[in-house]
Each structure stands twice: as C-alpha cells, then as structure tokens.
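Changelog note: in this version the structure field was regenerated for every chain. One regenerated record is shown below for reference.
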Amino acid sequence: MTPPYTRPTTSPKDMTELETGGRDPERASVAERTDGAQARVIAPAKGRTIALRDLNAYYGDTHAVRGVSLDYAANQVTAMIGPSGCGKSTLVRCINRMHEEVPGARAEGQVTLDDIDIYGDGVDPTSVRRVVGMVFQKPNPFPTMSIFDNVAAGIRLSGTRGVDLRERVEWALACAGLWDEVRDRLGAPGVGLSGGQQQRLCIARTIAVEPEVILMDEPCSALDPIATLRIEDLIQDLKERYTIVIVTHNMQQAARVADTTAFMLNGELIEHAPTEKIFSQPADTRTEEYVTGKFG
C-alpha cells in the first residue's frame, strides 16, 4: 500500500510568494521572477505539455538535432525511436538542459513547459532539471548511500522546506513499486539491490522531488526481461501523474508502453503519430523500413 502523502496545496497569489515555496497543484510550472532573480520551480499534481519549436543541437560543429518541432502531450508516454546516432538522446537531454553540460555543446530554438520557455532569460537550468527529471540507461544509485539516502538526496539538495522526509521517501518508493521489497532494509546500500531494483530506486529518487516530466533514456537496456516488464508496468502507472518521454531501441517496448511514437533519422524528426499508426500504417516509407527491421 502506498504510504499516505498529499502534495502541498498552498496556492501562490503572485510571483513573490514563490520564495516561500507556495504551490498550486492545479497550475504550477517553471516560473520566471520579474525582479531578475533566479527562476524558482514548483511542482504540479499532474504532468505538463512540452513543445519543441525548431530545436537544433550541436556538439561543436556537429549538427546533431536539426530543426525539430514536436509536441508531447501531458500525462502520456511518448517513445523516441530511431537508429543509433540519430539524435534522439541528444534531443531528450535538451528538454532538461543537460545537453549544454557537455563541453562545446549548445542548443538553439525553443523548448516550452506549458507556456514557459525553459531556455528563456532568467530561467535557472538547475531548477529546470528539478522539474524535468531524468532516468538513465544504466542504474546509477549513489554508491556510498543507503536506499533511504539515495531517495532523500534530491529532496535534501532541493532545500524543500516543511517536508516530512521519511514520509516523502516512503511515498516515492511506493510509487516506484519498491516499498514492499525494501521497507525492512532502508539502511542497506542502494548498490546492493538487483539491477531492476536499482533502476526503480533511481526512479524513486527522481519522483521524490515531484517533477512534472520524466525523461527515460533507454531505462531497460541493461535489465533482464522480468525487470524490464516491471519497469514498463511502472511507466503505465507513473503517466497518471507525470508526462513521460522514453528513448528506446526496442520496437516491442515502444509498442507496449507508448501512447505516441516519434521516429528520428539523421537528426531530423521523420514522423510522430499514435503508436498504433506508426507500427501499422506509417506515413513515411523510412518509418516503415525502420520499424520492420529493414535498417537500423
């Protein structure tokens, strides 16, 4: 059973109230301060829409993502598919401004979370990454931390005030489908868990800070089939609360978990449509060739 937990319901009446941590569960997003201070982020009860407009990403002179415009619907799972090197992981990393952390890398264009441009003036990248969480290909629990401290790490770093830390950790572990398996050993090392459990631990760590969006970059590629199915079931549960974007090379996985699927090739978006249509009646012959295994 999921431990009882309710999101804060204080509703900010103006931008200045963001300093007190006020949250509106019905309407909250990345917020730009009008006084020039760094942007603050507040989390909503449900996921938010993402819109990319003419997004370009570079590694030095290499043009990795080329003029992509794409909409991600709130509380849906969107799968990003395409051959290795097509730009899908780079595109996803632009959504939470991780791409710019690579030396020599840069992004151009617009990425909006609801109606706020996350690349706009005054928006703090660290705040963006709190709202747009990331789960990586290989489980990466903090090696020196316990199960409890792995989940609590993000909460502590975000400086969230008035939070019952134990309650929030238990809630996040339950949401990640891990609570019943670890409730009696929260002080044990996180790295002592199985691969699938470690990945769910990392998901719990991500959702503990209450993001609006969860990005997953091939989250099951290092897992066995049983652990993979557990993660896929979890994704279906999580989309009730979050907007989810998943990068995958596994066509069957995309068909199982995604509401819509976007196909990329050579840095360009070729097609984005409901998943059933992508796999049964794609509009572009290149999409058909890829999903039927003729290349890639």
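Spot check on this record: Residues 225-238 form the longest helix (14 residues). The CA atoms of residues 190 and 227 lie 17 Å apart.
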